[in-house]
């Protein structure tokens, strides 16, 4: 990233994902200090239960994950943090699931991607009994998303009224769509094609996973 950051004509670099066991202090420092690298990190959690993390062979604990989050927030107070979570892994109990919910609330993820466990042929875990009933899977996923979306909505609402730099990706219908440096999508109108440009947009409204804005005229 240090080398990429030196390339002329390149304005944004986004480091997408790191396995928590591989996220070093050096990498956090690079994301925090290199001016072209965006203030966003995707750090898959999968579960807040140490027992389930061990069954998943994730090689970190919930406490270890929280220590990494603390380092990220200390280095980049305004950075966004997103994650992946799987509910109803084989053998997951209500206590295991509550541990995940508590960690999600404690971290306050800007957004998360949640999935119900389903067996994948050829994987080691496929040998385990898929023992969480389908209805319980649905209930746990719904409960997790309810908490997560509430956190996301509150975080997005705090951006309303601010003017942020948007990298415009495409046009959808009558609106252009771009992303903030923290990777939130923004929908806005513009008098001419600005795809591929960096433009200032004042945020006028928010939803769970996107923002609405108004292009700032130069």
What percentage of residues falls in helices of 4 or more residues? 25-40%
For the secondary structure, the number of strands is: 8
**Major beta-sheet overview:** 5 strands, mixed, barrel
One letter per element, helices H and strands E, the order comes to HHEHHEHEHEEEEE
Q: In whole angstroms, how far apart are the ends?
A: 32 Å
The CATH architecture of the largest domain can be given as Alpha-Beta Horseshoe
Protein structure class: alpha/beta
Reported by name, the CATH topology of the largest domain is pyruvate-formate lyase- activating enzyme
Overall morphology: globular
What is Rg?
A: 19 Å
What this model shows, in words?
The mean pLDDT is 95. This protein is globular. The chain has six helices and eight strands. It folds into two domains: 2-156, tm_1862 like domain (pyruvate-formate lyase- activating enzyme, Alpha-Beta Horseshoe), CATH 3.80.30; 163-215, OB fold (Dihydrolipoamide Acetyltransferase, E2P), CATH 2.40.50. The strands form two sheets. Strands 4-5-6-8-7 form a five-stranded mixed β-barrel. With 218 residues, it is an alpha/beta fold.
């Amino acid at each position: 990233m240090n080398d990429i950051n030196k390339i002329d004509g390149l304005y944004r670099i986004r480091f997408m994902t790191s396995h928590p066991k591989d996220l070093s202090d050096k990498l956090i420092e690079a994301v925090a200090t290199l001016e072209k690298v965006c203030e966003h990190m995707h750090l898959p959690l999968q579960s807040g239960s140490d027992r389930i993390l061990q069954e998943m062979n994730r090689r970190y604990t919930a406490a270890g994950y929280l220590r990494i989050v603390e380092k990220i927030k200390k280095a980049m107070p305004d950075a966004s943090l997103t994650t992946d979570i799987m509910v109803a892994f084989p053998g997951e109990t209500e206590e295991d699931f509550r541990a995940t919910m508590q960690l999600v609330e404690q971290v306050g993820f800007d957004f998360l991607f949640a999935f119900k466990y389903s067996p994948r042929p050829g994987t080691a875990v496929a040998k385990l009994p898929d023992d969480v009933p389908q209805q319980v899977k649905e209930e746990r996923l719904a409960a997790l998303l309810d908490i997560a979306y509430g956190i996301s909505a509150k975080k997005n609402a705090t951006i309303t009224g601010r003017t942020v730099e948007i990298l415009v990706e495409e046009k959808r219908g009558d609106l252009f769509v771009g992303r903030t440096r923290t990777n939130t999508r923004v929908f806005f109108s513009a008098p001419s094609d600005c795809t591929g440009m960096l433009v200032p947009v004042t945020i006028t409204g928010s939803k769970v996973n996107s923002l609405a804005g108004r292009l700032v005229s130069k």
